Amino acid sequence: xxxxxxxxxxxxxxxxxSIILKWLQETYRCEVVTFTADLGQGDELEPAxxxxxxxxxxxxxxxxxxxxxxxxxxxxMFRANTVxxxxxxLGTSIARPLISQRLVEIARETGADAISHGATGKGxxxxxxxxxxxxxxxxxxxxxxxxxxxxxxxxxxxxxxEKHQIQIPKDKRGEAPFSVDANLLHSSSxxxxxxxxxxxxxxxVYQRTVAPxxxxxxxxxxxxxxxxxxxxxxxxxxxxxxxLLTRLNTLGHDNGIGRIDLVENRxxxxxxxxxxxxxxxxxxxxxxxxxxxxxxxxxAAHLKDELMPRYAELIYNGFWFSPEREMLQxxxxxxxxxxxxxxxxxxxxxxxxxxxxxxxxSLYDEDIVTFENDEGAYDQKDAEGFIxxxxxxxxxxxxxxxxx
Length: 404
Fold this sequence. Notes:
Layout: E1 6-10, H1 15-28, E2 31-38, H2 46-54, E3 60-64, H3 66-78, H4 96-110, E4 114-116, H5 125-136, E5 141-143, H6 145-148, H7 154-163, E6 179-182, E7 187-190, E8 220-227, E9 230-234, E10 237-238, H8 241-254, E11 259-265, E12 271-277, H9 279-295, H10 298-317, H11 323-335, E13 341-348, E14 351-358, H12 366-369, H13 382-403
Parallel strand pairs: 1-2, 1-4, 2-3, 4-5
Antiparallel strand pairs: 6-7, 7-12, 8-9, 8-13, 9-10, 11-12, 13-14
Helix pairs in contact: 3-8, 4-5, 8-9, 10-11
């Protein structure tokens, strides 16, 4: 890549990406543009600007993408009730395509030759960043320093930082206890003290939730309103997507909701152990499924459940911008046309319990399901023929077994 003159770097302002920034300048003798996305990670972003300026960066992009993140990425994913391997709500996975999208767009705006990220060669994020980038611009060049540079250890990185007067936080001079990634949907913690899956995570790992044991003894009751499959209100108050998820995060935090400890299968082939906290997303998933239970036809609901693991895998593996994900999204969005109404939930010590739901588009008919007089609504005698027709192949199968 000797023709690289300008690179757009996904820049957090942390030690690793600051080292990458300087390494790009030294290795390629190129101009670097930094891009820092505010996805609700909770960090103050101005220090990232100041650090970039100290490293001589002239073009600095710091953007608040929280509304875009929730509206165009999180909500479409939640319409499918998406979980990976039965438990993971894909908080990290769903953020990567948006970051990649802006990297590619900024590269075009600034005339950059390449983009760069700080993902390691062992993880999923390198795949997600790069597959998204190539899907949006087939000619884009990607620089992944963790796969290319000469550094072999943490000590090498710290020595490089000191040589170039890159500020090193005191807690980074030793071994960091674990690695953290966060956005408005979740926080994830991996590595170091969490690498032994037999050991319970220390209390200090958790950042987004109080311990369920320490949550209030009195339950919190909350009502979530839906329109076309998306949450639009809390307790009757209309909220923007990001503000709604922020409010759910607060409710989830206070009630100890959304903690998971899992060993997952990475796309690159290895297993990894992580501790994830998704307080608002856990509430939202329960509410959405409850709303669908009232408004979604059985065939549509079961088809969605069959397709969901495939959809989740596409997102986890980095194929958000693939044609097959877009095809599935069209089907999912079609299913949500009548997913409208309100769901009432009880939040209590780590639990999310549906206690009521109502909808103007409900398929639930009390006259049909009642145990009281249902004259004219449903003829129970019809069930006999229904059962006999469904039993026919089972009878034939049993008769053959009895002959042999």
